[in-house]
Amino acid sequence: MATFLEKWVEEQARLTKPDKIYWCDGSDEEARKIVEIGLTRERIEDYNVFHKLSQKTFPSSYLHRSHPTDVARAEHLTYVCHSDKKTAGPNNNWMPPAQAKEKLTKLSDGCMRGRTMYVLPYMMGHPESPYAKACVQLTDVSYVAVSMRIMTRVGKGVIQKIKKTDNFVRGFHSVGDFHQDRRFIMHFPDENLVWSIGSGYGGNALLGKKCFSLRIASWLGLKENWLAEHMIIIGVEDPQGKITYIAAAMPSACGKTNLAMMEPALPGYKVWTVGDDIAWLNIGPDGRLWAINPENGFFGVASGTSMKTNPNMIRTLKAGKFYPTIFTNTALNTDTNDPWWEGLDGEIPSNLVDWRGREWNPSLGTKAAHPNSRFTVAISQCPTVSPEFNNPDGVPISAILLGGRRTNLIPLVYESFNWQHGVFTGGGIGSETTAAAIHKVGVLRRDPMAMLPFCGYNMGDYFRHWLNIGKRLAHPPKIFAVNWFRTDGEGNFLWPGFGENIRVLKWIIERINNKIGAKETPIGFVPNPKDLELDGINIPQENLEKLFEVNIEDWGEEIKDIQKFFEQFGKRMPEEIWKEFKNFKELK
Ligand code: OXD
Ligand code: MN
Fold first, then answer.
1. Is residue 269 part of a domain?
2. Count of domains for the chain
3. Residue 203 CB–ligand 1 contact under 6 Å
4. Residue 472, annotated ligand binder?
5. pLDDT tens-digit series, residues 350-381
6. How close is the Cα of 421 to the center of ligand 2, in Å?
7. Which of the two ends of the chain, N or C, has the fewest CB atoms closer than 10 A to its terminal CB?
8. Which residue CA neighbors atom 3 of ligand 1 most closely?
């Protein structure tokens, strides 16, 4: 008798009418065959899906050019279809599930004609982890099939795990005709189902990532008492060899990947990479919070990545051990056949075509690489990958960092008074928007815990869930807010960032271990200037003062904006958060 999985695949095939159905095994040999199809037979607009790059600089690497209208997450076309609108909350687009399915069924009818339907069984998390989840994605484009092999653990073993059950997350994906009017990314949390059509962009199409590991998983976490978060996970080793694990939430394209594999500027320190984008956080038997990274690869922003900003990522991209590495929407040096992006080390090459394949030179005043150009590469190639990366239990978290991109107001670092105050602080965090999603760049929006685009249910309930998790933790991590992006009046950054951020992490670790005091302010504890390690760095005194200044008179607009944001959630907003808000306002 056919299994639930087989029946589902058959049903989808009847609807979408692919020429072929291909069950993937996740092998290297298979990936090479699929890439070959993208190199020779499959096209998007004017280009083959893959272009083979010079194998000298970045071995095993290929360039992919997206459809030009399809280069970022489409938040306005992303829906979370709970049975009622209130559960989705004001933070999500919503459609009744039956209506959403009717729409998607029409759009999907015959959408794979002339194409192959790839069936990808995969795990999010190490197969032996009690926290891992089995999933199956269907897709009709080689780029997505191969990217899933890099980003997740694809393999036939998953089918054995699923057996005859329906206990897996289903992801249906088709690029459709790429038309924006026929593009939707829809989630059905109660059915463990994601249905995405019309986009081949990573965040919309690699369904294990944002769609499952954040939107659906956050809903599972609410029901099962855990947290699915938009966080990196790192181990910071001090000169004595002690490793402290930290999780850090920051919005897309705000430096999470750089922080995740930072080369510390302070001697004797080392950062170990567990994850660069997503953390699943569970309460361990010891009452601590334990984190796993459900992913197996990096889908990071290429623009700005260099030996200066992230040497370990450049090394990862050059390793060429796991097949393949993909660059998406970078420029191309036509002399050397290498990818190129703004910020890469060295001179601007003289013969470049831009991310759309058009001749380019700096006098055009445009960017050669798309600002959201990306790489997709295996985490196993990263020289700083943590020995704990595959530990089924994950790592114990001692601190949570919550950040945003703020050119003013927000100090470099401050510590919340306690868990509840930390949830209030994280809930009110704002950040200036970036090119990772389709919207105006540089606009301030509230982005609680960097989860605004990814929380699969009402954020009022999400804050309540955070409070509940805190109550169940015998040893909750301390919560800190960070902001690397503060500038002076002329737009220059006040803090050098990158490897120098270790100085902030050192302060955080000393606070965790109760080694140092701090200055109490209405927003939390900020460092006493003497406690921030500044040896070997030259930061003008006035910059330092600005970086830690909490001039509460300047917070008026911020407070109003936070209040407006919280009010949207009406009765779902926990009283405790309003209490923290009130305390804060009164202190002001
Ligand atoms: C990502 C994002 O791709 O947050 O990780 O957009
Ligand atoms: Mn992300």
1. yes
2. 3
3. yes
4. no
5. 999 999 999 999 999 999 999 999 999 999 99
6. 25
7. N
8. 203
